[in-house]
Amino acid sequence: MSHAAGNVLFLCTGNSCRSILAEAVFNHLAPASWHAMSAGSQPTGQVHPRSLALLKREGISAAGYHSKSWDHLSPTPDIVITVCAKAAGEACPAYLGPVLRSHWGVDDPAHATGTEHEVEAAFMTAYHILRARIEAFFALPLDVLRQDRPRFKAELDRIGAL
């Protein structure tokens, strides 16, 4: 069964934790025709070391991932998913262009405080939320939804509420 190709952009502010985790997990699970990228509106310039360590522990390649601005994207995304925490008052970047947009808010583990265990737990929570949503994405009838943008958007928004 062939899948229509698609490029997904995971977008947040710093591009050091959540969007990097989403990009890596998506590409780890994706069929060959789907590809994820990530960017930030105000990139920190480095991937959080805990994000890299977590991906390594989960057996997901972190090679080549870096914190980058959305000004230098190639190719153009078909779908843009913001992962910033609007509820926490975080400014969500608004990607301009004729793309399908959805919001999958996740608290930023880079701002977690407390003990080593508590901070690590914040990263694992973000990872598990994103992985569950990405698995739900790949469970969708993607070939069908590519032809029905309103339904595709509704499904993406439903996943973002998981």
UniProtKB/TrEMBL annotation:
<keyword id="KW-0059">Arsenical resistance</keyword>
<dbReference type="GO" id="GO:0030612">
    <property type="term" value="F:arsenate reductase (thioredoxin) activity"/>
</dbReference>
<dbReference type="Pfam" id="PF01451">
    <property type="entry name" value="LMWPc"/>
</dbReference>
<dbReference type="InterPro" id="IPR036196">
    <property type="entry name" value="Ptyr_pPase_sf"/>
</dbReference>
<feature type="domain" description="Phosphotyrosine protein phosphatase I">
    <location>
        <begin position="6"/>
        <end position="140"/>
    </location>
</feature>
<protein>
    <submittedName>
        <fullName>Arsenate reductase ArsC</fullName>
        <ecNumber>1.20.4.4</ecNumber>
    </submittedName>
</protein>
<dbReference type="InterPro" id="IPR023485">
    <property type="entry name" value="Ptyr_pPase"/>
</dbReference>
<keyword id="KW-0560">Oxidoreductase</keyword>
